[in-house]
Amino acid sequence: LTIPNGTDPQLLAQTLRIVKELEC
User: Fold this and answer.
1) What pLDDT, on a 0 to 100 scale, did the predictor assign at position 1?
2) CA 22: distance to chain centroid?
3) Distance between CA 7 and CA 24 in Å, rounded?
4) Confidence at residue 18, expressed as pLDDT on a 0 to 100 scale
5) The pLDDT of residue 9
6) CB under 8 Å, gap of 24 or more: what pairs does 4-13 form?
7) How far is 13 from 3, CA to CA, in rounded Å?
8) How far apart are CA 18 and CA 13, in angstroms?
9) 3 and 12 Cβ atoms separated by less than 8 Å
10) 3 state SS for 1-24
């Protein structure tokens, strides 16, 4: 999983949470 530079940490954390839920 690559993280583009300048990504909003809050948005990134939310995205990671969604990805984890989808990977179930």
Assistant:
1) 64
2) 12
3) 25
4) 93
5) 84
6) none
7) 11
8) 9
9) yes
10) CCCCCCCCHHHHHHHHHHHHHHHC
Per-residue pLDDT at 5? 73
CA distance 6 to 15: 15
Per residue in 1-24, pLDDT (tens digit) is 676 777 788 888 998 999 999 987
| Cα–chain center distance at 10 | 9
Tokens of 4: 């583009």
Overall size of the chain counted in residues: 24
Single-letter amino acid, residue 14: Q
Amino acid at 12: L
